[in-house]
Design brief:
Strand order of the largest sheet of chain B: 1-2
Number of strands of chain C: 10
Number of helices of chain B: 18
Helix content of chain C: 25-40%
Distance between the termini of chain B: 23 Å
Distance between the termini of chain C: 74 Å
Number of helices of chain C: 4
Structural class of chain B: mainly alpha
Oligomer: heterotrimer
Strand content of chain C: 15-25%
Largest sheet of chain B: 2 strands, antiparallel
Number of strands of chain B: 2
Strand order of the largest sheet of chain C: 3-2-1-5-8
Strand content of chain B: under 5%
Helix content of chain B: 55-70%
Shape of chain B: globular
Largest sheet of chain C: 5 strands, mixed
Radius of gyration of chain B: 25 Å
Structural class of chain C: alpha+beta
Order of helices and strands of chain C: HHHEEEEEEEEEEH
């Protein structure tokens, strides 16, 4: 592995920044840098993640432009907003908040608190996912299907694409929790992975709030 | 390099490169192996898409001819028009041009220069051990391969591959009854696109992160080779533009299979039968076919620069190396590339001048289009100024680079014809457009890839390509490339439409047949000449002369390590950079080149 | 051998120009039969300017490629920046292109201007794979259409009981145009995207399903010409061919009525 070569030659045998898998675990995110280059001030993984968020944002900007164009169609019939969606939104945003609390517990070296709040994050995320499926069921019962009219098409499509991205986030979250399983003390619990994941998770919360705003408020 | 040897032994002890064949060469995370995997796969795809093009040309020159042997080889495609056996059928022809375009644009010309040479060269030229995310990089290749398999499989499913053109305009691509390829073949097309975009996104994330974060000490952005600038810009273009096609493809999929109406308007009547549902109303209501075109070309136009920018980067690097002269106007060249990349986002509407979109909008797009010609012209002038009073060494890479300059001039000038909205009324959707984009986009990208192959072959396989064979390949390709695509301007001006199975149905196109014969013969020679390349490539990879560290006396960082570079790229420390990579023929230097990592001289260019 | 390479570069371009000139004399735009001569002029000006740039840049390329070859004792200049030179060619290029742009936009505005009041109204509806041409008849009003009523016998879904539809005249693949009178053509499509292309008239307009797009022009010479489909619309795209007949304006109604029999 490329990273192992440079680890061996780096001034510190243990990397300064914490990386996924901890200092000795294997590292899927190799740095490839001997350090000191003009770009070394950034954390590559954080930078790459932001670039990824940029490309996901472009996807939703594309959908937004399609939505704005399509809204002018004569066949546009507004979709009722199921109240459940507000609860779902609350669950997702609260799970973001819980994740932040968890990160603070980690900084405070409180391993028990960290686990507790990560559990809360997972629970709220689960509620959101279940709630989204329930909202789809409710709308279907009301006779609004994917193909009923453009408004419902956009709702199902955008919430579906959002859920797909959330699914990816959950896989990542599972990986974070898996790594935590044997941790005996908080700093080993992958602070960097956790902060990367938190960035993505908050983004998903904001993205959902945006989708809701676009479809039902805008 | 002295330090290289000194550290070699020490480095060896630390080298934990995977040893098992499967991890070293198949599921590799090493950027060089991934680059070669991408490159070889793309070239195989090029071979297939090139053969499709030969079939297109044969049909255009001699429709209604009984191709006995071809017909026997591909019975599906030669079921005969007009009851004759072994005559190509229109379904097959539509699949040919659709698949030729799709495969060439996405799976060959976006892949070989960007994913192939990008992966090979980025860590070597910026001075990094590997890409920022090696695992993601490997995953990206395998995702890409899934896309290749999907698109090739589509020929053999249901009624055959997609046949709505590479642009897949709905309703043609959305209505299963509109054309046979719009049955399951179009779904395969969409899935292949999603694979491709996912792989390109993973690659793009790697590109920007590596170039921003992992540059070696001293390598500021304005000291990067133009190849690196092009890769950086291409990755940004891909990350920002491809999502539009992802979204549009998803909407097309829903329109096709789940009865939504994003792109399908009210009132579709197919074969005299209104497309109504059980309630007596139209199944599709109120969608906009123009919306697809906007979304498609929002990707599609940046996409053509994704193809071209790397070729422009290679050309600058190759030209300077083989004319032993510093690049003229480096900052203007960087600026021009940035301007081209930026402007590429606001010109997409020039593909839609006659589509029925608002004429005011069309005016705005015409302004952007003419604007983008300025930085393109600056690039040509700077290349010419670089050649002026230089000392040209005609090695194979140099020929290809000069070929790119020539094609970029020819194709760029025909762009001025098409960018003016009013004259475009006559030229739109004719062979003039085909001539234009084959010269500037396909040609420049292809020549760029060939040039880069000859240039960086030592870093791929540690051997040199055969120069004589390379030159023969170039001259055959150069002459027949022009022979194929230049005459297309004439038939285009005369009104010859694109995507026509049998042009001679039209009275006014009957006189085009002799010219079509000429083009086809030229294209067939062009196709056959590529055998020279494949022979040279595989022969040289195994039997070519061993390459030294820096066979061309070039300046870049990639030439400071062995050919091919070891795992981790430099056995010792990564060299530090003291200047740009174009310091050639500096009178105060002992040699006619000063490499990027050499200590500062008394008098320098200041770059 | 090295010298030869340089020469070859020059030769390749030269041969190209010679072949091009030869071909030029044979094929050019189809003979113009409408009032859109400005498009031809714009193309001719573009040809002259881009042709000049083409020849000059290619000659430079060939000259540099030939003259500055490596030889014993040859030295390359150490010269890599000249802000004044770069600024000059950037501004000159921008200036020339600005003139092109101005001309093109002007022309575009003219082509897309409002049709004159006395223009003859015609509707052209594309379907796989034919052009349905409709004239409003004596009342000058096109009858309503309803795509739900479309069938093999009623391809454009004409509403038969609409009074305005009674005198509408329908033709298939035959378009009659009056000489020297402006015509407004409303372009529509029943199914997929087609493109209504009249090569001799410098007219091309995509037929977008769900939209009615109006264009106008004036035929200038009588005679028979062709309608082509310029947008890939399916397997029969290549034979979606129609005919244009330009007749003296006074004979238009008669010619259409006869053809509609």
């Amino acid at each position: 592995m490329a990273t192992e070569i440079l680890d061996a030659r780096a001034p510190h045998p243990v990397p300064v920044v914490e990386r996924p898998g901890g200092p000795t675990g294997h590292d899927p995110i190799g740095r490839g840098d001997d350090g000191g280059g003009p770009g070394a001030a950034f954390d590559p993984a954080q930078f790459g993640l932001w670039a990824f968020l940029g490309t996901v944002s472009m996807l939703f900007i594309g959908f937004t432009s399609a939505y704005i164009v399509r809204r002018t169609g004569i066949d546009w019939r507004p979709l009722p907003l199921p109240r459940l969606l507000w609860w779902n939104t609350a669950a997702l945003l609260l799970s973001s908040a819980a994740l932040e609390v968890a990160r603070r517990r980690r900084t405070a070296l409180d391993l028990r608190g960290l686990r507790l709040w990560l559990g809360a994050t997972a629970l709220l995320a689960g509620l959101f996912v279940a709630g989204q499926f329930q909202a789809w069921r409710l709308l279907r019962a009301l006779g609004f299907f994917l193909s009923s009219n453009p408004h419902s098409s956009f709702f199902y499509m955008l919430s579906g694409v959002h859920l797909l991205h959330l699914g990816g986030g959950l896989v990542w979250f599972a990986l974070v929790l898996y790594r935590l399983r044997g941790a005996r003390y908080a700093p080993a619990a992958g602070g960097r992975t956790l902060s990367l994941f938190a960035t993505y998770w908050h983004f998903l919360g904001l993205l959902w709030a945006y989708v809701l705003f676009l479809i039902f408020v805008f | 390099m002295a330090h290289t040897e000194a550290h070699a032994a020490e480095a060896h002890a630390h080298d934990h490169a995977p040893q098992a064949f499967i991890w070293k060469y198949v599921f590799s995370k090493d950027h060089k192996v991934i680059g070669i995997q991408y490159y070889v796969t793309a070239m195989m795809m090029a071979l297939i898409a090139g053969l499709l093009a030969m079939l297109i040309r044969i049909q255009l020159a001699w429709p209604e001819v009984n191709w006995g042997l071809l017909g026997k080889l591909m019975p599906m495609g030669f079921q005969g028009g007009g009851g004759q056996p072994y005559v190509m059928n229109p379904e097959f022809y539509a699949m040919l041009f659709t698949m030729h375009g799709t495969i060439m644009v996405f799976f060959v010309l976006s892949t070989a220069p960007v994913s192939g040479f990008g992966n090979l060269l980025i860590p070597l030229q910026v001075g990094a051990r590997d890409m920022a995310f090696p695992f993601l990089n490997g995953l990206s290749f395998w995702t890409f391969l899934c896309g290749c398999v999907t698109i090739l499989t589509s020929f053999f499913v249901g009624a055959g591959a997609a046949a709505g053109g590479w642009t897949s305009y709905p309703p043609l691509s959305a209505l299963r009854g509109a054309v046979p390829g719009s049955q399951i073949g179009q779904t395969f097309w969409i899935i292949a696109m999603v694979f491709f975009i996912a792989s390109f996104t993973m690659g793009g994330l790697n590109f920007v992160t590596t170039i921003i974060n992992l540059r070696t000490k001293g390598l500021s952005l304005l000291r990067m080779p133009l190849t690196m600038w092009s890769m950086f810009l291409v990755a940004i273009l891909g990350l920002l533009a491809f999502p539009a096609l992802t979204g549009a493809s998803l909407m097309l999929l829903l329109d096709r299979h789940f009865g939504t109406s994003f792109f399908l308007p009210t009132g579709l009547v197919l074969n005299g039968t209104p497309m109504v549902g059980a309630n007596g109303q139209f199944v599709h209501q109120g969608g906009s076919p123009l919306l697809w075109q906007h979304l498609f070309w929002f990707l599609g136009h940046p996409e053509v620069y994704i193809l071209m920018l790397p070729a422009l980067g290679f050309t600058s690097d190759i030209l300077t190396t083989f004319c032993r002269k510093a690049l003229f106007g480096y900052k203007a060249m960087v600026g021009a590339m940035v301007a081209i990349a930026g402007l590429s986002f606001i010109v997409w509407g020039h593909h839609m001048f006659v589509s029925g979109m608002s004429p005011y909008l069309a005016m705005a797009f015409a302004v952007g289009t003419i604007l983008i010609a300025v930085p393109s012209a600056v690039k040509v002038f700077n290349w010419l100024a670089t050649l002026w009073r230089s000392r040209i060494q005609y090695k194979t890479p140099m020929l290809w680079a000069m070929g790119v300059v020539s094609l970029f001039i020819s194709g760029g000038l025909s762009g001025v014809w098409l960018g003016q909205s009013a004259p475009d009324i006559q030229l739109h959707d004719t062979f003039f457009v085909v001539a234009h984009f084959h010269l500037i986009m396909a040609g420049a990208a292809l020549f760029g890839v060939f040039g880069a192959t000859a240039m960086w072959f030592p870093k791929m396989f540690g051997r040199m390509m055969n120069d004589t064979l390379g030159k023969w390949h170039f001259w055959f390709t150069f002459v027949t490339y022009y022979g194929t695509f230049f005459p297309m301007h004439y038939i285009g001006l005369a009104g010859h439409m694109r995507r026509i199975y049998d042009p001679y149905q039209y009275e006014f196109l009957k006189s085009m047949q002799p010219l079509n014969h000429f083009i086809t013969i030229s294209a067939l020679i062009l196709g056959a000449s590529q055998i020279l390349f494949f022979v040279n490539f595989f022969w040289s990879a195994f039997k070519g002369a061993k390459a030294p560290e820096n066979p061309w006396n070039a300046n870049g960082l990639e030439w400071t390590t062995s050919s091919p570079p070891p795992h981790g790229n430099w056995p010792g420390a990564i060299p530090e950079v003291h200047r740009w990579p174009y310091e050639y023929s500096n009178p105060s230097a002992p040699k006619d080149f000063v490499m990027q990592h050499e200590p500062p001289l008394a008098v320098e260019s200041g770059h | 051998m090295a010298k030869l390479q340089g020469l070859l570069f020059g030769l390749a371009t030269l041969v190209l120009v010679v072949v091009a000139t030869f071909l030029f004399t044979k094929e050019w735009l189809p003979p113009l039969k409408s009032d859109r001569i400005a498009i031809d002029h714009a193309l001719a000006i573009t040809l002259v300017v881009t042709g000049l740039v083409f020849i000059v840049t290619n000659l430079l390329l060939a000259w540099f490629g030939y003259a500055y070859q490596d030889a014993p004792g040859a030295k390359a200049a150490y010269w890599h920046d000249s802000p004044r030179l770069e600024m000059t060619w950037t501004l000159v290029t921008a200036g020339i292109l600005a003139i092109f742009l101005f001309n093109a936009l002007n022309l575009w505005a003219k082509v897309n201007s409002r049709p004159p009041a006395d223009a003859v109204l015609i509707e052209v509806t594309g379907q796989q794979f034919a052009w349905n041409v409709r004239y409003p008849g004596k009342d000058g009003v096109l009858g309503k259409t309803d795509h739900l009523q479309a069938s093999q016998d009623n391809p454009i879904g004409l509403v038969k009981d609409d009074p305005a539809a009674k005198d509408d005249l329908l033709l298939l693949n035959q378009l009659y145009l009056p000489k020297d009178r402006p015509v407004r053509v409303q372009v529509r499509s029943m199914d997929v995207i087609h493109s209504f292309f009249l090569p001799n008239f410098r007219v091309k307009q995509d037929a977008m399903p769900g939209m009615t797009i109006e264009i106008w022009f004036t035929p200038k010479e009588t005679g028979d010409f062709e309608i082509a489909c310029a947008e890939h619309c399916g397997l029969g795209h290549y034979r979606m061919r129609g005919q244009v007949h330009v007749v003296p304006a006074a004979d238009l109604d008669k010619a259409v009525a006869e053809a509609a029999q």
